[in-house]
Amino acid sequence: MVASVESFTTDQVIRITGVSRRRLAYWLDRGIVSADIDEARGRGRIRLWSFRNLLEVRVALWLRDRLSLQLIGRIVKELRKAGLTSPLATVRFAVIAGGSRRGDNVVIQTGTGEWAHPITGQIIFEGTLPLQRFGEELTAAADRDYKRRRRAGVIERRRGKLGSKPVLAGTRIPVETVIRLHSAGWDVERILDNYPGLTAADVKAALAEAG
Q1: pLDDT in tens, 185-196
Q2: Are residues 166 and 100 located together in one domain of the fold?
Q3: How far apart are CA 130 and CA 119, in angstroms?
Q4: DSSP codes joined into one string, 50-89
Q5: Which of residues 115 and 39 earns the better pLDDT score?
Q6: Is 144 domain-assigned?
Q7: What are the two backbone dihedrals, phi and then psi, of residue 115, each rounded to the nearest 5 degrees?
Q8: Which of 114, 151, 155, 162 has a C-alpha 20 to 30 A away from that of 73?
Q9: What is the domain-level CATH number for residue 17?
C-alpha cells in the first residue's frame, strides 16, 4: 500500500499522476511543484518525490485546466512567501479580479479559516481544492502501480480485451505495438519516453516474443 512507500521516482510520478515528462520538468524548473529530495546535478542527480509532492502535481494539473500557467505561478509564489513548502497540497486561496496593479491578486486563507487580507474585489476563482478526493485517487493509483511493477516483464492475454491480443501485464499496451515500434527503429529509451507506463523489463519481454 502507499502508506508503506516513502518516496517515488520521477517515472512513478509520471505514471501515477498522468503528467507528461516535459510538463513535469517545466513545472519543476519554474518552482510550481517540488521534489522533497532533490540533490546533485547532471546525470548523477537524485530526485525523489513524496506523496505530498504527488498531490501537488495532481492539483497543478487540475488548476491548469482552469487558470493560466502565469497565474498558477503567482499563486505558488504567494503561498511560498507565507512559509508553505508544498502550497498546492495544503491551503485554500482565492483570485481577486483587479486586486493589484499587476492585475489579479491572490489572497490566501489562514489556519483559522479567515482570509489573510480583506476581499474587496470580485472573486474570479476560489481554490476549494478537492484534496481528499485527489489523495484517495493517488493512493489507489500508486497502489496499482506498485502491484503492476511487481509483474514487470509479464505478458498476459485477457479474453475479450483488445481482441484477446497479448498485452504487457497491468497495461493496455499490446506486445505487437512494442515490436512494431522497435522494428521501425525506436530504441528502448524512446519507447519508454512515449509509454511511461512501461518498464525496460516490459520492452525486453515484448521483443523476446518476436523471437
Answers
A1: 999 988 887 776
A2: no
A3: 22
A4: -HHHHHHHHHHHHHHTTS-HHHHHHHHHHHHHTT-SSGGG
A5: 115
A6: no
A7: -80, 140
A8: 114
A9: 1.10.1660.10
